[in-house]
Target: DUF2264 domain-containing protein
Amino acid sequence: MKKIFLAIAVFCSGTVLFAQQKNQNSSKEASVFQIKNPDTSLSPYTGMTKQHWRDAALYLLEGAFSYIHTLDDTMKFPKQPGKSYPQDEKKVPIEKLEGLSRTLFIASVLLNENPGLVVNNINVGDYYRHQICKLVDSSSATFIVPRTKNSGPNQILVEYGAICMSLMTNPKLLWDPLPQDKKDALAKSMLSYGDGPTVASNWKFFNIFVLSFFKDQGYQVNENLLVDYLQKCLADYRGEGWYNDNPAYDYYSMWGYQLYGALWSEYFGNKYYPEYAAKFRSNFKDLNLNYPLLFSRDGKMIMYGRSNSYRIASISAFPFMGLEQDARINYGWLRRISSGVLKQFLQHPDFLRDNVPTLGFYGPFEPTVQIYSCRGSVYWMGKAFLGLLLPDDNPFWTAKENEGDWETKFKKDKVYNNFQEESKICITDYPEIGASEIRAWCSEKAKNDWQGFRSSENYNRLAYNSAFPWQADGKNGEVAMNYVFKNKNQEWEPLRLYQFKKFENGIYYRDAILETDESIKMNLADIPLANGILRIDRNISTKEVSMRLGHYALPQLDKEITTESRKIKGHIATIIDNGKYQLAMIPLLGWDSSEVISSTGLHPESNSSKGINVADLSSITTNESNVYATLMLWKQSGKRFANKELIPIGKIKPSGKAVEVEIDGETKVIEW
Model:
């Protein structure tokens, strides 16, 4: 009788737990952004028009305003556990400033079209004017102390620059109604930061926007410094759409330099500094040549670089291509990408928590969070909606959606590399699964990386793919899309110090050394294939070393990840399948073993994940044994790998400092 009662209790508790989980999932689904009355004629792929972008902007703003009940309430949101700030009360005023300045990106463009906008029973225009004035009210908890003469740049400069962007694009509602004494006090406070030092990165633009806005309003500003920062920003340009953000190439080139240059030129530069504006606009046009290729066929961005929590800001430059009115620009493709990215996040059930976007990629994900971020930082994504400033009849809004090169140039059985000589970036597109991939700079020592992100997984992967978001490293050697080596402290240490060598005959060459032991080093060669990557790498370490190499990882979705092992032509292929994608890894030369690794808490899409690692735990380099050849393949779930897909190569012949490999009947020579 007790056993029956216990069984019933267990069954009932399981039913309750299942019901609770189901209700939670239903609640998440209900909270995602809904596209009402999709326009499949103008936008056959996403259904989204300019009106839906307005709806999306309001959707985000309404979440933020769920914390605002009076004009005195601040944009301070629940802190996400982890390394984000504030860690103490000293940073709370800056936290509130971030929430104010960044939600203003969204509010400003909506107010531009609807000056009387009311959200959560609060007049939005009144709220921001009131809060901006409180920044110079010494009795307010949000008062910002002006910069002292000898102090350096800090986060206040960034947020003041952001506010000035909104003031510049909507002065009629946000600036003109303010009392003159408040205007003068704001000018004094903001210029104390703008007319001062900066960081040798995209931060220079924050000084530029502060100085430019107040010059336009008739205040005396340091024009010599303004010109100096303009020249230094232009000097950061490396061609083909990419600015160097000292030292990285990442999304800051686009949601920072390129967007800021276009915005500054349109609202200020064309009038006051036409020569500099012309240069920024010329650089801006270049991004059309390759940046769209960084997004997947269905408009998904790659999880790559720092500040991934800004997400949709990655598309913020695209609408401003509409200012060019250039027949060579495929506006329908740019909007298809842009709306696809909006849907990628706004319709993901984990995107919002407490009505506010999480710090992470889809949901909360601590490995991708930086210490300079607070919960309100995420609204930097609001820059995506600055495109709403373009009129309704702009070609960005009126062109019919299309899939650009994916439908006009790319063939499914091919792979396409777009290498950019100056930045050394290689963008690869895989038509078979519609995915995009990037290989780019990383060479930062962890011991010098006090903020802990440039040497981390945000940058140190061998490649980053739109279909397979990066997984963090585990303490037991679990690794995805990188090498790890057992260092002198008996810890698994990833590669992070890369030196680009060349891109030749479809092969991307790099050298790499281990940070803590320069006697451990590799020659690397990536060969993208139609359905994956062939790696031909050479271990040139001068000591015995244990090492592992990981494929991309798969998150567990609706069902358990399955594992399969197949022997083809003397090689063992290990295949994992999560119901959406399959990954296959085939060691060809050099490796001792292959295994499927289960991980917890390392993947941005799911708490549980699996990856495939190969290992050589007693590597002693010789001329004959130091080459490691590895196939890292993928396929959509439900389509069985054919044997010829798993082994698409013939002979592999190492010879001194070169390796000959036969791929689909063609012989490639890898020469490091």
Residues 251 and 314 are 6 Å apart (CA to CA). The radius of gyration is 26 Å.
